[in-house]
Amino acid sequence: NAGVTQTPKFRVLKTGQSMTLLCAQDMNHEYMYWYRQDPGMGLRLIHYSVGEGTTAKGEVPDGYNVSRLKKQNFLLGLESAAPSQTSVYFCASSYIPNTSYGYTFGSGTRLTVV
Amino acid sequence: TQLLEQSPQFLSIQEGENLTVYCNSSSVFSSLQWYRQEPGEGPVLLVTVVTGGEVKKLKRLTFQFGDARKDSSLHITAAQPGDTGLYLCAGYYNTDKLIFGTGTRLQVFP
């Protein structure tokens, strides 16, 4: 089972450039999430989706956009990258939350904005 | 505002030692989860605790949920180098989304 697949694994952007991070899950999960992980900050939720065609803002949504056109895919976009967006980005998916199943995470995308 | 505080932030020990990691909050959580993250990978779920006072064991790892459901601890007995990683607690607080703690980075030396 592939689980949650993120592409690319690494990327270097120049300030002002745009890019899209791709996340795909094959577990038929309804919920999908995008987090960023920075040293000493833990995981912070950027945006999330409770089903196909839905998106919602998380804790740190500014500078990011998302789309969930298909149930299995959740895309994270950076329209105009800034050095403050240098981070490791994780996608996750889950069944209905608040259960014992927890989240399944991808292996991350390390993004550097110079 | 960080709802879940973990301590210690860093822990470096020798193989065979015991250790405890704490996850504390002033808020009540309906459930708490513990994850382990290895370098270059995403977090992987270890356990979920739901009932106040609940204790779960996973081989040499013992997880406890506080009676008031505001805190949790992870105790590792006879740590091994394979236990090295970042340990994250996470809880559902009044929403349908997980709130993650600040993390404890554990290094176990042979």
Low-confidence stretches of chain A: none
Task: Please give the count of helices of chain B.
Answer: 0
Order of helices and strands of chain B: EEEEEEEEEEE
Described by strand count, sense and barrel closure, the largest sheet of chain A is:
7 strands, mixed
Q: Could you estimate the helical fraction of the residues of chain A in percent? A: under 10%
Quickly count the helices of chain A: 0
Major sheet of chain B: size, sense and barrel closure? 6 strands, mixed
- Element order of chain A: H for helix, E for strand: EEEEEEEEEEE
Shape of chain A: globular
Number of strands of chain A: 11
How far apart are the first and last residues' alpha carbons of chain B, in Å? 38 Å
Output the structural class of chain A. mainly beta
Overall pLDDT of chain B, averaged?
A: 93
Determine the N-to-C terminus distance of chain A: 36 Å
Strand proportion of chain A: over 45%
Low-confidence stretches of chain B: none
The structural class of chain B is mainly beta
What value does the Rg of chain B take, in angstroms?
13 Å
The radius of gyration over CA of chain A amounts to 13 Å
How would you concisely characterize the structure shown here?
The complex is a heterodimer of chains A (114) and B (110). Chain A has no helices and 11 strands.
